[in-house]
Amino acid sequence: MDKYIYDESNGLWYELQGDYYIPCLILPTEKEHKPIGLWGQRHKRYLQEHKRAVYITLLTSGKLNCYLTDIDEQATEMIFRLVEQMADKEGVTEQLKVEKPMLWVGRMNEIQARAREIVYADIIYK
Predict the structure, then answer these.
(1) For residue 31, what pLDDT band results from cuts at 50, 70 and 90?
(2) What is the domain partition of the chain in residue ranges?
(3) In whole angstroms, what is the distance from residue 14 CA to residue 44 CA?
């Protein structure tokens, strides 16, 4: 028996493994391999647990890393923008930081927590 055979009906190569021919399948490689940040990792975990079909489709098409990197960038930009806007609206300024540092820290922590919840709802768990 031949080690490899080609099936013209479906265009696949098969490799002999024991007594069976197994299709030679290779996942496509992504062009760029950028590191995935915190938000991308959280969205990946959400996809794996709750949107399995979307995760498998992205993985097998070779677009998962690019997609997660994009989600991470969007979430990071949104966090910075929201924190800045909320701080300006609520009067959490550098002046407050100098005069009452503990109050400033508490208010900024509250703002960051609200911004994270918005990002979770709008980007990560969507």
Answers:
(1) low
(2) 1-29, 31-124
(3) 32
